[in-house]
Every structure is written in C-alpha cells, then in structure tokens.
Amino acid sequence: MENPVLWTLIAIQVFMGAFDTLVHHEGSERLAWRPSQKTELRLHGVRNLFYAVIFLSFGWLEPHGLFTILLAAILATEVAITLWDFVEEDLTRKLPGTERINHTLLALNYGAILALAGPILWEWAQLPTRAVPTSYGWWSVFATVSAIGVGLFGLRDLLAATRSDRLDRGDPADLVADLPERRHVLITGGTGFIGSRLVEALVGAGHWVTVLSRDLRSVDALTHPVRVITSLDQVHDSDRLDAIVNLAGEPIASGLWTVKKRARIIESRVATTKAVTELIQRLEHKPSCLINGSAIGWYGLRDDEELSEDAAPAPAFVHDVCEAWESAAHEAAACGVRVVVLRIGLVLGVGGGILARLLTPFEFGGGGVMGRGSQWMSWIERDDLIRVISFAMAREDIAGTLNATAPEPVRNADFTNALAQALHRPVFLRFPGWLLSAALGDLAHETMLAGQRVIPTHLQNAGFNFRHPKLAPMMRDITGG
C-alpha cells in the first residue's frame, strides 16, 4: 500500500482520533468514570481493538485473498460500530460542539480513506490467499505506535465498562436526610463539581432548588426539576428561601496566577457573596442560614502543625482569597441570618475536581509524587461534603467556621500510593518541585508543593459522622476497586 496520500489521510485520522479521545473522552467528558456510559465504553473498546488490527495489517502486511476479505469485513464492522456509537452518544449524553465537529471530520476523512483503499483491497482479494510481509518504513513504525495506543485505550475502556456498576454512589437523597421536608434552597455555583451533586441530592429528596448560573449549557446536565436564574435580581422580594448555599467562584487551579487571574479569583467570590447579602437584606422572608464556601487555604502555607478552626493563618495568596470571601459572607449575619463558613479541603470524587485530573495519568502508569511528597493533603470525599452541607443547614446551633475535611489528612506520598493501589497500578515517577514551580509558579508552590494538616474539630464535636474517614478505603470505594 505504497500510497503517500492514503498514509497521510490515515495519519490525519489518527491525530483527530487522539484529539477526540484525550480532549473529549478523557478530558471534558470523563467517560471511563461515568456509569451511564457503559455501552459507549464497550463500543469504544471493541472499535479500538479493531483499529489496532487494521493498523498492524496495513503497516506490515499485504493480506491477499481470504485475508483481504477478512480485513474488509473488519473495516465494515468498524463502520457499523461507529454508527451505533453515534446513536448511543446522542441518546445518553449531550455532546460538546467541538466533539460533534470532530466526529464529522473523522467521518469525512474515513470516507476518503475507504475510497482510496477500496481499489487496493479489491486487487488484493483477487490474489491467492496469503499474508505477504512488507514494510513502508516510517509509515509502518507510525502504524505500530498507533496500534499500541488504540489497543491500550481499547482494553482500558472494556475494563472501565466492567467496573461501571461499581461506581454507583447510591440514592443521593440519603445525603440530605438531616433536612426537614420540602425546603427552598438557593445554590450559587450549582453547576460545579460540588454544587451539581448537592442539586441532585436535594431534588432527589423532594426539595425545591433554585440555581444561579450564567452557563445555561451546564444547567442541562443538572438533575431536574430546578428553577434556573441568571441573576439574583430575578428573585422577588416575596420569594421564600429557607437556605442559601454559596459556592460560586472562579476556579483557582484552572490557569497560571497572572495579575488578572488573581483579581478574577477574588472578585468572583466577593461580588457574588455581596450580591447574596443584598438579596437577603431585601427578602421579606429571611433564609434561616447562609452556608458559604471557603477553603483550607485560609490557614496559609503550613508544615506539620495540626490546624483546628481556632488556628491563626499564615501569609499566602490562597489565604487572601479565603479571607476576602469569608469577610463578605459574615456581613450577612447583620441581617439576623445564621452564617456557616465551610473551609473545604480537597474534594475527592471520580466525577471532577483534582482526582478527575489524576485518574487517566495514574491508570496508564503516569502518576507520581509531587516534590518531596511530605506536604499534607487535607481531603474530603464529595458525598461526605454534601452531608456536611446538609448537616450545617439542619443544625440551628451551628454557626461560624467549620473545617470541612476528613479527620485523617495524609501526606502527598501516601495519597499517591493510595490512588495507585486503588487502581492497581505501580508508581514510578516523582515530579521535582523546581520543575513544577518553573512551569506553574505560585500555583504549584501553594497548591501542590505546600499544604495544611487540618482537623475538623468543630464538626466532630457537633457529632458529625464521616462515612469516609480514611483515605485508602475511600479510594477503593469510589474507584470501584
């Protein structure tokens, strides 16, 4: 198959397929960790294994006679699987616009490949049956590398499909069992990793939920029915709200901390929280509580000191963010509203947050220790955090600051080993601190290479019971290990 145009189209197909897999399937959609996509994962797995056979056949063999017919049958089956996959995707998830465009380009390019390869396969089919070894130089090497890549992802997707049922987190309504029936709850940041699960739990339990969001596409993925508003001005003075949960804010780890990025991180939190306070001031029926987000970054960069809610802070940008956010939230107390500030640790769940960014690298053996590995990581499993929010809403005797972290923080090296063991993967790598700092600056220094050893003293004293107090069992549970 010495046709440079055909090989060029195959290379384009490979690169577009890799983009679709890495950016959409592994990146934005995280298909391997969504139980609803079990059938799609199986289709991807079988198709990728077919691709591996096709690449190796084109790269190193000239299949003649019956072998050509067999290869043509594999190509035809792959087309049928792809069409089935398109239908399955449309039925089970809302595809991003970039994924639809990429699929269209893949289909057109594949059609061109089949048009050029068809006459060659027809000619081979007329010859006596045998497999003739051949080589096309670097194109054969490229085909081999491509076959290995799609083969690995194919096997992983088939394994992911088998674990899908073990990823079921149970009835989300159980997470808000502390609340009285039929509460009216306003949530800002309700389309995020934490907020979307809170919405799912509240709606599942029969509560009325209003979500503030300017991203209407993200709202489509929420559990319904919910009331959606794009501005707090759309809440009428006479509307009844029993509680407000304020989680909105610019993602802190989504880009380098430029001057503009730092300003957006702070302003997004403070502006929304001030708007919430203004809403509370004009409501005829005041909510009973404001549950406001914050983070353990309030304590600054610390070493081995155990930090309860009474600990003093140390200087850091993450402290400045949390201090500004908490100060804006406490202004609502002047309206007679009970204010609870949650200093949240690393929120762990396979559907988003820091863990979602680590799963694919760890699954393929690319996980590693950050810097020295001795920095503390104070964490909380996502469903436990939803239970903390419900607990704080329900308990009228709780006000002020709560450390929303599991009772047993761990060092980064222990975290790395626990995740690797849950996924049954080895850990070989270590990412030097100087390299991370050089690439990411203060973002790496404050969020990856330093940490806080935070203890949820007030929660424990109030009688809150963590379902996931220890990291290793929790990792095995949420990853289906």
The amount of helix comes to 40-55%
* CATH class value of the largest domain: Alpha Beta
Query: Which outline best applies?
Result: elongated
Overall pLDDT, averaged? 94
Going by CATH, what is the homologous superfamily of the largest domain? NAD(P)-binding Rossmann-like Domain
The major beta sheet can be summarized as:
7 strands, parallel
What key phrases describe this protein's structure?
single chain; alpha/beta; Rossmann fold; seven-stranded parallel β-sheet; two-stranded antiparallel sheet; 16 helices; 17 strands
Per-chain topology:
Blueprint: H1 4-28, H2 38-60, E1 61-64, H3 66-92, H4 97-125, E2 130-133, H5 138-163, E3 184-188, H6 193-204, E4 208-212, H7 216-219, E5 227-229, E6 243-246, H8 259-282, E7 289-295, E8 306-307, H9 317-330, E9 338-344, E10 346-348, H10 353-363, E11 368-370, E12 376-377, E13 379-381, H11 382-394, E14 400-404, E15 410-411, H12 412-422, E16 429-431, H13 433-440, H14 442-447, E17 453-454, H15 457-461, H16 471-478
Parallel strand pairs: 3-4, 3-6, 4-5, 6-7, 7-9, 8-17, 9-14, 10-13, 11-16
Antiparallel strand pairs: 1-2, 12-15
Helix pairs in contact: 1-4, 2-3, 2-5, 3-4, 6-11, 8-9, 12-16
Account of the protein in words:
- The chain has 481 residues and is of the alpha/beta class.
- It folds into 2 domains: 4-167, no CATH class; 172-478, 3-Layer(aba) Sandwich (Rossmann fold), CATH 3.40.50.720.
- The protein has 16 helices and 17 strands.
- The protein has helices spanning 4-28, 38-60, 66-92, 97-125, 138-163, 193-204, 216-219, 259-282, 317-330, 353-363, 382-394, 412-422, 433-440, 442-447, 457-461, 471-478; strands at residues 61-64, 130-133, 184-188, 208-212, 227-229, 243-246, 289-295, 306-307, 338-344, 346-348, 368-370, 376-377, 379-381, 400-404, 410-411, 429-431, 453-454.
- Helix 1 (4-28) packs antiparallel against helix 4, helix 8 packs parallel to helix 9 (317-330) and helix 12 packs parallel to helix 16.
- The longest helix is centred in the N-terminal third of the chain and has 29 residues, at 97-125.
